Amino acid sequence: MTLDSIALHRRSIRKYNGQAVSREELEALIRFAQEAPSWKNQQTSRYHIVASPEVLAAARQCLRGSNPQKTENVGALIVTSFKHDIVGHTHGVPDNEGGNGWGWYDLGLQNAYLLLKAAEQDLDTLVIGIRDAGELRALLQIPEDETIGAVIAVGHRVEDAQRPPRKPLDEIARFY
């Protein structure tokens, strides 16, 4: 499979079939995510993988809006985070105007790698931002020095999702 075909195959899936996702598959996602670049190679992204049925049920209750329903029958949830006040700083002082925003940037890069690897492995994903970070922190005992980012649902789709339209290139890019 080419990178183009992987990117075109990957969709945000909101209905899962309940098929398990193995620990080996989940480890492969995290290992591949680690290959993404990070600020000064700080590697501050962290992953809290929820796959046991009991903890998965509790973690789904930390999601907000319609996300508990969208993750029904999901194989795993991955709570992504990064160690804050490290990325984009030298001795506690921001290296540029991005400051701690580089932690978000690095986490986003690693999460994108994870999503692409999942698609390559015929796993489906949904990135969830509407969640209660405090409840997730308490449930999973996530340290206070980590900023919780997205929750990524991982599983197997019930049905294919349509590709949403993309904006024209001349609307999003300027060439000089």
Number of folding domains? Answer: 1
Oligomer class: single chain
Total E-strand runs: 6
Which runs of at least 5 residues are low in confidence (pLDDT < 50)?
none
Total DSSP helices: 7
Helix/sheet category: alpha+beta
Could you say what the CATH architecture is? 3-Layer(aba) Sandwich
The coarse overall form would be: globular
- Give me the CATH fold name: NADH Oxidase
Secondary-structure element string:
HHEHHEEEHEHEH
Largest sheet: number of strands, sense, barrel closure:
4 strands, antiparallel
CATH class wording: Alpha Beta
| Average pLDDT reading | 93
Radius of gyration: 17 Å
- The amount of beta strand, in percent, is 15-25%
How would you name the CATH homologous superfamily? NADH Oxidase
Gist?
By secondary structure, the chain is α+β, with helices and mostly antiparallel strands. It is built from seven helices and six strands, in the order ααβααβββαβαβα.
Structural description of this entry:
- α1 (3-9) crosses α5 and α2 (23-33) crosses α5.
- β3 (89-90) and β4 form a beta hairpin.
- It is globular, with a radius of gyration of 17 Å.
- It is an alpha+beta fold.
- The protein has one domain: 3-Layer(aba) Sandwich (NADH Oxidase).
- The protein starts with a helix and ends with a helix.
- It has seven helices and six strands.
- The model has no long low-confidence stretch (mean pLDDT 93).
- The strands form two sheets. The protein has a four-stranded antiparallel sheet with strand order 1-2-6-5, with helices on both faces. A two-stranded antiparallel sheet has the order 3-4.
